Amino acid sequence: MTSRSMPGTDLAATIVKATAERAAEFERLTGTKPCLATVIVGDDPASVTYVKMKRNRCAKAGITSRHVPLPEETTTEQLVAAVRELSEDPSVHGILLQHPVPAHIDERAAFEAIAPGKDVDGVTMHSFAAMSFGEPGFASCTPGGIMRLLEDYGVEPSGKHAVVIGRSPILGKPAAMLLLAKDATVTVCHSRTRDLPSIVRTADIVVAAVGKPEFVKGDWIKPGAVVIDAGYNEGNVGDVAYAEALPHASLITPVPGGVGPTTIALLLEQTVTAAFAAS
Questions:
Q1: Would you say 103 and 76 are in contact if contact means Cβ atoms under 8 Å apart?
Q2: 173 assigned to active site
Q3: Which residue among 33, 118, 119, 121 is the active-site one?
Q4: How far apart are CA 113 and CA 97, in angstroms?
């Protein structure tokens, strides 16, 4: 069996190019650029790097980026107030709250302060419900990017068994809902799942989203399975032991360069969509 790496860089470039063209059209029609507000609490190095990267990508796509840094000691009430102010600002079209926030903050309360029409990262309960019921709305960007990757590589989820490892509300759960919407049979695994390797070995599509470096071993992978590694850990490694899994998988995303680029591309695309919807 021939294994293939499944990078997302080319797909992301295509999405960003089309997004830049739409952003230019929006500016031509309205005289203003689409605007994404990025909110970050504290100075976690990884989060600071991610936000900087997203702001740089915004500039390349013709999107204005408004940076809203808040101190580590910000309270839930203060963060919610800041997010609500952005939600009410007509010059802001999309809001990204960088997560995780510090432990003393109620992250869910902060997410829910984002107006549904500006939830371009797909983190609110409204967006999750829209994904689950197939209604209009914004997809969670990493799960949405995963679905675009599968489509781009000709992977048809219908009738296949997809195993999602991880149940976070902004990655594992929405990924499961989007796969279910494409008629996959979906199993969601988590920290209490018994005999996890045996379950993963039954999967035609594996989505690893556990946040643990090289957690999924190569001998867990069914021959010919498609492996999507949605993890990113210190040392530039994902949640899958890539070298071990490569001989077993038909397609496997690298880390970095796999899911990450499509995540950011989808964020930009949804920001421009939100701008047009609000105009």
A1: no
A2: no
A3: 121
A4: 10
- Residue 121 is among the residues annotated as catalytic for this protein: yes
167 labelled ligand-binding: yes
Between CA 132 and CA 110 the distance in angstroms is 21
Cβ-contact 65, 40 below 8 angstroms: no
270 is catalytic: no
Residue-level pLDDT at 53: 86
The CATH architecture that domain 141-259 belongs to is 3-Layer(aba) Sandwich (3.40)
Mean pLDDT for the chain overall: 96
Other residues' Cβ atoms within 10 Å of the Cβ of residue 96: 26
Within 10 angstroms of residue 190's Cβ, the number of other Cβ atoms is: 13
Residue range 22-40, pLDDT digits in tens: 999 999 999 999 999 999 9
The CATH superfamily of 30-116 is: Leucine Dehydrogenase, chain A, domain 1 (3.40.50.10860)
Over residues 188-237, the pLDDT tens digits come to 999 999 999 999 999 999 999 999 999 999 999 999 999 999 999 989 99
**Which residue ranges in the chain fall short of pLDDT 50?**
none
